[in-house]
């Protein structure tokens, strides 16, 4: 079944079957991130406001936390991983709003899911993953090249295939596959460029870089595609970080408490 086959009632019924996801999504929809003036109290109303397809994708993003479990702490701190993913998603959505992108909620979910290929590799090839992480020393910017050298493919390839296997739209597949190299994107260059910029800012924020330092790794093609300048993005960083912290409290904190 494709995303266009889901009706409002069907999506609401599916979400209702999971109390944890239901509660988390209602909190998210009522957060400042979505800017609803009236309180959203029912899942069917949430679906109507956001759209069945986008809410389905949000469900998938939150459910992904349950899918990837059992990865040793020595490979990845899962709280940090999801913190980075959610931060990227929130920042991509904020940038999309500034660009007047239609259905900016898509960018939130694309950002949350963009790096899942890493987790697939960690779960599927733990020994090789340990070697790769030892070589990179935690430098995520050389991770894909190191994976390519050792495995013959990288986590972007795997992420794109995962999005395809989940029957997500082509835009999700391109973001997962090209977020490190937005100049190589095909049909969805804007979405890929927005997530690329958001990822760079999120990476910098995670390690405590200044705003200027956050922007050094952004591919020049991303500036051309989005029309943003360094100054434009710099002016949004504080707002994006605040939004990210609010959203992480809704997505990550409940999951962490549930696992405690």
From TrEMBL:
Indicate the secretion signal residues: none
Tagged with keyword Acyltransferase: no
Q: Which GO terms describe its molecular function?
A: hydrolase activity
The record's annotation in InterPro entries points to: HDOD, RNase_Y/CdgJ
Q: Which Gene3D superfamilies match?
A: Hypothetical protein af1432 (1.10.3210.10)
Which species? Candidatus Thiodiazotropha endoloripes
| The protein, known as | Phosphohydrolase
Q: Does the keyword Hydrolase apply?
A: yes
Q: What Pfam families has UniProt attached to this entry?
A: HDOD
Q: Which residues form a coiled coil?
A: none
Keyword tags: Hydrolase
């Amino acid at each position: 079944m494709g995303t266009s086959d889901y009706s409002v009632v069907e999506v609401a019924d599916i979400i209702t079957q999971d109390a944890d996801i239901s509660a988390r999504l209602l909190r998210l929809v009522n957060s400042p991130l979505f800017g609803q003036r009236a309180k959203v109290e029912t899942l069917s109303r949430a679906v109507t406001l956001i759209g069945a397809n986008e809410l389905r994708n949000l469900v998938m993003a939150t459910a992904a936390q349950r899918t990837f479990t059992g990865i040793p702490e020595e490979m990845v701190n899962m709280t940090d991983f999801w913190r980075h993913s959610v931060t990227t998603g929130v920042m991509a959505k904020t940038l999309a709003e500034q660009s007047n992108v239609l259905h900016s909620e898509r960018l939130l979910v694309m950002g949350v899911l963009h790096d899942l290929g890493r987790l697939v590799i960690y779960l599927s090839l733990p020994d090789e993953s340990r070697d790769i992480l030892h070589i990179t020393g935690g430098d995520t910017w050389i991770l894909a090249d190191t994976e390519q050298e050792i495995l013959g493919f990288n986590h972007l390839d795997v992420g794109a295939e995962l999005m395809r296997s989940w029957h997500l739209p082509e835009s999700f597949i391109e973001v997962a596959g090209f977020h490190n190299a937005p100049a190589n994107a095909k049909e969805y260059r804007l979405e890929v460029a927005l997530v690329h910029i958001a990822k760079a800012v999120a990476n910098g924020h995670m390690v405590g870089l200044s705003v200027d330092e956050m922007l050094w790794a952004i591919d020049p093609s991303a500036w051309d595609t989005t029309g943003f300048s360094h100054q434009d993005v710099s002016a949004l960083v504080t707002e994006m970080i605040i939004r990210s912290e609010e959203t992480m409290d809704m997505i990550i904190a409940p999951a962490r408490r549930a696992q405690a």
